Structure formats: structure tokens, C-alpha cells
Give the backbone structure.
Amino acid sequence: MAFPEDIAVNLAAVRRRIDEAARRVQRDPSGVRLIAVSKTFPAQAVRAAAAAGHREFGENRVQEALEKIETLRGLGLSWHLIGPLQSNKARRASAAFSCIETIDRVEILDKVNAAAAAAGARPRVLVQVDLAHEDTKHGADESAVSDLVQRAIASPAVELAGLMIVPPFPNVPEDSRPWFRQLRELRDRLVAAGVPAARLRELSMGMSHDFEVAIEEGATMVRVGTAIFGKRTPPAAPGT
Ligand SMILES: *Cc1c(COP(=O)(O)O)cnc(C)c1O
């Protein structure tokens, strides 16, 4: 983990790069939100980022996240779930996360909607899309996205806000561009087909190695871990 003082410096550097990438394509930098991915790092790392003014964090494992959320209660932080959600954790996840970015099938959408209704919560949700068909990756097939979007809109206890993607790991940042562009084009087609634009406003795409390319292609949320908190050791286990 980076030292607390380095976390503040790293955050400022990432924010500056976000600004520059947005300006390169004539976008307003305030239209890009930085989700600081704190998975595998202790609550103390999140505290350092919060002390530097950061408020939005991403976690990929529900259990690990719940512990940090509890420890850091009172700091006014909001949390995004960016890893796969198992049905048996839907209830606790629905109440704890302000945004669940990994809705990729009807079964989990229905679980989250029911759990959120029972908890009196209304989390934002994103539909995670799989465009590259990698065995190891989660996400809805492109052909299933439209139905999932319609069903999310019809689910009263969730607020559909957009789409999310984790493309194949790039050798160079430019490798990710076609995937980011395809996600944006998929969103545009859904809106052209009648989905209210406000329901698909967010595009969550881009990580430490390619967030600038993602911003150039229209990302409204970038999920950045390593560039803020340092290298993960050991690497994050696959999500629960
Ligand atoms: C870990 C993770 C990130 C952050 O990755 P970095 O390369 O450390 O920036 C972003 N999105 C998802 C879904 C992740 O699991």
C-alpha cells in the first residue's frame, strides 16, 4: 500500500489526468467521476483518500466491503460494487452500496430489486456488458442487454443509471479503445430505440492503465485502484 501522503499525491495526479483527458475531447471534466478502487487495501488507505477529499470508492467483494463500510461509517463515503454479486449477498449489498455496477442477469437484478425494496433502499444499478466473450469475465451478452435494461427500468427499487464494462486487459491503453467505443455505441443504439437517455447516462469504463482512453470515448465514471493506492499484494481474489 502507498503511504497516506502518497495517496493524496496520487489522487491529485489522477484527477489532473482526468481533467486533461476530458479537455482533449472538449468534455467538461466535471462529467467524469473518479471511483477510487480500494479492494484489498485496509480501511486506513480509504481514510487517507477521504482526508484528501475523496468520497466515492469501489470494492469488488461484498464481505470485504461491508467491513470497511462499517469501520468508516460517519465519513460520508459512498460505495460502488464493481465485482460480481451472488444472490445470497444481494440483501446486504443492496443496503450498503449506493451503486451496484455489476448487474448482468435477470436473476440478480430481481434479487437486488427485492432486497432493496425490503431494506427501503433504492441503489443505482449499471448493467455490466461483456463484449469480448472472455471465459473469465462477467457481464451480459450484448443480445441480452436490451431486455435487462427494460427489466431494470421496470424494477421500482433500483435506479438504472447506465452501462459498465471490463474489457480484456490491454497491452497498451489504445487496445481498450474499440471496446469503450462499442459500449458507447451500444448505449446510443438503445437510446435511439427508445430507452430514456437519463437511464443510460453513465458509462463506467476505464481503469488505471486505460482511463484516459475511456474518457476520450465518453466514460462518465472511471474505476482506478493501482494508480491511487499502489500495487495490490496479493492480487485481488476473484469477487465473491
Ligand atoms: C480492480 C478493478 C478496477 C481497478 O483496477 P486498477 O487497475 O487497479 O485501476 C477497476 N474495475 C474493476 C471491475 C476492478 O475489479
